[in-house]
Structures are given as C-alpha cells and as structure tokens.
Amino acid sequence: MAAGSAVVRALEALDVGGAADKINLIPQDFFAELCEQIIQYLNQKIPGVNVAELCQRIQTSGSEINVGDLAKVANIVSFLFSTAARNNLSTEELVTTLGNTVSALPKHAVQVIRHVWNEQGKSVSVSEDARNMSTVGQFVDMKWKLGVAMSSDTCRSLKYPYVTVTLKVADPSGQITDKSFEMTIPQFKNFFRQFKEMAAVLETV
Amino acid sequence: MAAPEPPPAEGCRPLGALLAGIAQAAYHGNAAVTEELLRQQLYPEAAPEEFRALRAKMGGLLQSIASADMDLNQLEAFLTAQTKKQGGITSDQAAVIAKFWKNHRLKIHESLINQSRWDNVLKNMSWRVDLKSQSRHVDQINTPVAIVEMELGKNGQESEFLCLEFDEAKVSQMLKKLSEIEESMTLLTQTT
Q1: How far is A141 from chain B (nearest CA, A)?
Q2: Which residues does UniProt assign to the signal peptide (chain B) (predicted)?
C-alpha cells in the first residue's frame, strides 16, 4: 500500500538496517526507555531526549555502546515514528513495514516499537512547519556557580568574582546538550536586566 | 640617601609616556610599541643601553604594582621604599608612577583578568519577542515567545551562536535562578 511503501523507502534511505547492530547493543529495557522518551518528545510532553545521560546508564550496565551511536539510533527511531505519524500508519502496518525493510532488527526491538506505537502513536501530530524549525533550541534548565579567581601566573592579586552558567538546551532534533559559559559581574547584571525586560515585554504582548 | 639623578634634560614628562608605552605592550597586546620606538620618541638623546636599563627598571616596577593590584596605601609604601633604595627612583619619578597607576589601574587590571579567562565567555546577547503563529499543537498559536541569541566563545577564537526559545514560564524560571545568583553575589561582596 502507498503509505507503507513511502515508509519503506524512507527507512531504506536512513539505513535502519545498519542500525540493527547498534540496537543489539542496547538492553531491552533501556531501548524501551529510549523509545518512550522519543515518543513523549514527539507528543510535546518533554522538551527532549537526554541521550548522554541515558548512554552513561547503559554503559554502567555493561553495554559498550557509545554516545554517537546511541544518538544515531535515537534519530532513526524518531524519524520512524514521525514518518509513521505523517503516513497515518496503524500498529500492524508499522510492524509489517519494519519487517519488510529490516529483517535484522532484533525481535525485542520490534516488540518495543510495536508497544510504544500502539500506546501513544495516535497522539503524535506532525505538521509541515516542524521541519522548518531552523536552528532554534529550547531552553530546558540552568545550573550556576559563583566563583572568585584569586591569582594567576600573570597577576598575583586578581580577586575577581565571576559566574559560570550551564544551560541545558534541547536542540531542534530533541537531543539535550549542555552549554557553559562565564560572566563577570557587570556582564551578569546586564544578562539579568535583559531577561527582566523580556519578561516585561512578554507580559504586555 | 636618594639615588643619583637621571639625565636632567628630559625631566619627568616622558616618563609618563614611557609607562603608557610599556603598559600598551605588556597589558594591551600592542606589539607595535617596541623598545626602539619608545626610545626614539621619548628619549632620543639617551644611549640605547641606558634606555634599556631605564625601561627595564620601570617595567619591573609597573609589573610589581600591577601584579599586586596595589591600592593607594600599598602604592605609597612601595614607592617610598623604592626612593630609599640604592639604584632606586627619585621622588619625582615616584610621583609620575603614582599618577600613572591611579589613572590606569582599572584598565590594566581588566586586561589581566581577560588574560586569565580561558573558558567560553558570553560575548554578546540579543533578543526579540515573536508571536508563535504555527505550531504542532493548536493551543500554542498566538503565544508570545522570546527568541534569544547568545554569542559564546573563548578569547581570540571563533564564536558559537546559540539561539534559544523561551516562553513566559521559561523566562520566569530563568529569572528565579538569576535572582539566586544575585543573592549569592551580594553575600559575597558583603563578606570580602
């Protein structure tokens, strides 16, 4: 059927088959957690998928997968779900299509995908503009610390306070990364002032 | 007793300029200000070795003062001690150095601070507020969002531009954290 073959072509382009090796490295419950997070992201319930954090836990459990490969798997599953949504595939259609494309996907992976899609696939709505959402990320959270630089090799009496900020950011593909930077006190005051102005404008719009 | 007088012809006017030149090279990264240039411009009648010694002495004094970021009390004590040393400075020279440091302390200190900032710094920030007109979910249409662009980078390296979306709730979240920082900062300045 037309919808199914569109998905098949898409999956082939993404080389889902090649991902099978990587998926094999992920223990079943972690793979289920990954798929859960992805579908929740697509349903706009969470801001993104924290691949790095999940990878650490998987590695602790003894698997050898690296962050890059886990990210690739996440992208593929995400693409699979959003393509299926765009083509309005039912659970059976999705599973059949997967079977047609990728015979090498481990059975447990197919089971997980089937379960997750069955439970939450209906509410994934993918509109055209989602793909045009450029390079704007979503702010998720912020950590900070305040320090004082006392001395350096060029100056024994530096004594300047500074703030280090780490922003947790979800990029357009849903992956969460950290961005850190430093501010001096005057820079921090300006930063603060700008956000206050933003709040004021948002209120009046 | 004070050290022997330096060549009287020039007086102390070029000393101020010499200190400025030394600071340019040492703290403001101006490689064009060479020793030879300074000698020609400020002490044309001095012999090169004589000038070199003067420059080295003044450079050393400025370094000590800048490294300790001396306040006026420390400066006075330091310079007075220098006038009493063998091969030290005259009280006229001390006066010129004091005046120079008072005028340039802040800028030189800032320069030294910048030299020790090796992590990403926030170079610039700009923002605008948009009305979200399209969205995956209908309930998001016509909600205002702030789009913030931050320029991050290390000193002397290419910048990375981070572009983020904040809705009203996220801005509140950010403001709360920023208030926490401000509180800590106030405590810090109170105790130091």
Answers
A1: 8
A2: none
Residues A173 and A127 both lie in one domain: no
Structural domain total, chain A: 2
> What does chain A come to in residues?
205
CB-based contacts of A86: which residues, under 8 Å, 6+ apart? A126
Would you say residue B94 has pLDDT above 60? yes
Residue A84 vs residue B152, higher pLDDT: B152
pTM of this structure: 0.66
**CB pairs < 8 Å spanning A and B:** 146
Task: Considering only the beta carbons, identify the residue of A154, A169, A182 that sits closest to B112.
Answer: A154
Give how far A190 is from chain B: nearest CA, Å.
Answer: 9
What's the domain range around A80?
3-132
B84 Cβ under 8 Å from any chain A Cβ: no
For residue B57, the surrounding DSSP H or E stretch is: helix B48-68
Residue A77 is given by DSSP the state H
pLDDT at residue A147 tops 70: yes
End residue of a domain, out of A70, A104, A132: A132
Greatest alpha-carbon span in chain B: 87
Å between B46 CA and nearest CA of chain A:
31
Q: In this predicted model, what pLDDT tens digit does every residue of B49-59 receive, in sequence order?
A: 999 999 999 99
Question: Domain check: are A50 and A142 in the same one?
Answer: no
